[in-house]
Write a structure and sequence with these properties.
The chain folds into 2 domains: about 90 residues, Pseudouridine synthase I, catalytic domain, N-terminal subdomain (Alpha-Beta Plaits); about 140 residues, 2-Layer Sandwich (Alpha-Beta Plaits), CATH 3.30.70. The longest helix is centred in the last third of the chain and has 14 residues. Helices cover about 20% and strands about 30% of the residues. Strands 1, 5, 6, 7, 8, 9, 10, 11, 12, 13 and 14 form an 11-stranded mixed beta sheet that branches. A 3-stranded antiparallel beta sheet has the order 2-4-3. Helix 4 packs across helix 5.
Length: about 290
């Protein structure tokens, strides 16, 4: 049974995240369209016979429907990162296996065939055949995220789906000194949702940077990469660095925030809008998926 690896990108605005989700029909349909500009958030009835649930619109859900339409066989996909609702991706890695012989070689034709069946906010960027045991989660050795801020009194228009709006001025140099305090191996309990579901909150951040974009000084990007991240970790790091940029917290205090191992010691969790999964790295010939920084 051949195993395939996809590199996909998506605008997460109108998705309930990566992972498939179901809700009772009455709950899902009453919520449909309740969010202004949210787009179609419900895919339709569950494909499980006799199940009265409705499938919410997720990236995994639309991808598996496109694959079913292509191979006429139910395919279960596994994504490297379970991005939350509203989070975007430039370099999500997905693996699946199928006994169908309709896919053919993993060349441009396969990507085009899938893209013709996917909605406009998801796109396959690359297709590869991999070893049967390839696991996009456990085989990943590093990944990188970007959190984008738009700093201006006026709200953004064209960038609004991909940035978090901050009205107060921010000092990017102070924020850079702050993120440098987080580089290394630490207990990041202060920077994770309390019920993060992991046995250990120790993680390694290999790189962290805060940069103001040359072509638009209103845009500040926070980039971090490491061996793995806890639930909401990047959004909490970004929220804490915004507090540093506002002058409400000193950069040097972040060492104490880490040492506290207490979620209350760090800053707020910023919205998912500004967060993008940029890339993932694997120890195989295919190498890095997505962009690096």
């Amino acid at each position: 049974m051949p195993r395939y690896r996809l590199h996909i990108a998506y605008d997460g605005t109108d998705f309930h995240g990566w992972q498939k989700q179901f809700q009772p029909r009455t709950v899902a349909e009453s919520a449909r369209g309740s969010e202004v500009g949210a787009g179609p958030r419900v895919l339709g009835p569950s494909i499980i016979p006799g199940d009265e649930r409705v499938e919410l619109r997720t990236v995994q859900g639309v991808l598996e429907r496109a694959l079913f339409d292509l191979v006429r066989q139910r395919v279960t996909t596994l994504g490297a990162s379970r991005t939350d609702a509203g989070v975007h991706a430039r370099g999500q890695t997905v693996a699946f296996s199928t006994t169908a012989d309709r896919l053919g070689p993993p060349d441009d034709r396969l990507g085009r065939a899938l893209n013709s069946r996917l909605p406009e906010d998801v796109r396959v960027e690359g297709c590869f055949v991999v070893a049967d045991g390839f696991d996009p989660i456990s085989d990943c050795v590093a990944k990188g995220y970007r959190y984008a801020l738009f700093v201006d009194q006026e709200r953004p228009l064209w960038e609004r789906r991909f940035v978090h709006h901050v009205r107060e001025p921010l000092d990017a140099e102070r924020m850079q000194r702050g993120v440098e305090r987080l580089v290394g191996t630490h207990d990041f309990a202060s920077f994770a949702q309390i019920a993060h579901g992991r046995e250990s909150s120790v993680r390694t951040i290999r790189h962290g940077a805060v940069t103001r974009c040359d072509d638009d000084p209103r845009r500040i990007d926070i980039t971090v990469s490491g061996d793995g991240f806890l639930y909401n970790m990047v959004r909490i790091i970004a929220g804490t660095l915004v507090e540093v940029g506002r002058g409400r917290l000193e950069a040097e205090e972040l060492s104490g925030v880490l040492a506290a191992a207490d979620r209350r010691a760090a800053g707020p969790t910023l919205p998912p809008t500004g967060l993008t999964l940029e890339w993932q790295r694997y120890p195989d010939p295919i190498g890095t998926v997505g962009e690096t920084f």
